[in-house]
Amino acid sequence: MRFCPRDGTLMVPYKKDGVTVLKCPKCGYEVKLSEKVKEAYRQKAEVAEDKKRGVMIAEERRAEYDQEEMEELRRQLLENLQETEREGE
C-alpha cells in the first residue's frame, strides 16, 4: 500500500494510457507503478478474493410469529451459524 505524499490518502491502482499508475482519489497525484509493486498488488488481490464470504442482509418484518415459527427460525439460525463455523476451520 502506498499513501499520497500530499494529503495521506490511500492511493489506488489506475490505468492511464495503457500504463498502471497509483493515483490519489482525493487530489489526483499520480506515480507510475513498477513491476515489483504491481505483483504485490496482484498477490494481495488474490488473497482477498480467497477470503471473501457471503453476507446476509436482514429485512425488517412487521409480521407476528407464533411460538412454533419462532422455534423453527432459531433452529435454522443455529444451523447456519454452526455451518459457518465449520467452514472457517
TrEMBL record:
The keyword Endoplasmic reticulum does not apply. Residues 2-57 form the DNA-directed RNA polymerase II subunit RPB9-like zinc ribbon domain. Residues 31-87 form a coiled coil. GO terms for cellular component: DNA-directed RNA polymerase complex. GO terms for biological process: DNA-templated transcription. InterPro entries: Zn_ribbon_RPB9. The keyword Transcription applies. Signal peptide: none annotated. Keywords: Coiled coil, DNA-directed RNA polymerase, Transcription. This is DNA-directed RNA polymerase. The lineage of its organism: Archaea, Thermoproteota, Thermoprotei, Thermoproteales, Thermoproteaceae.
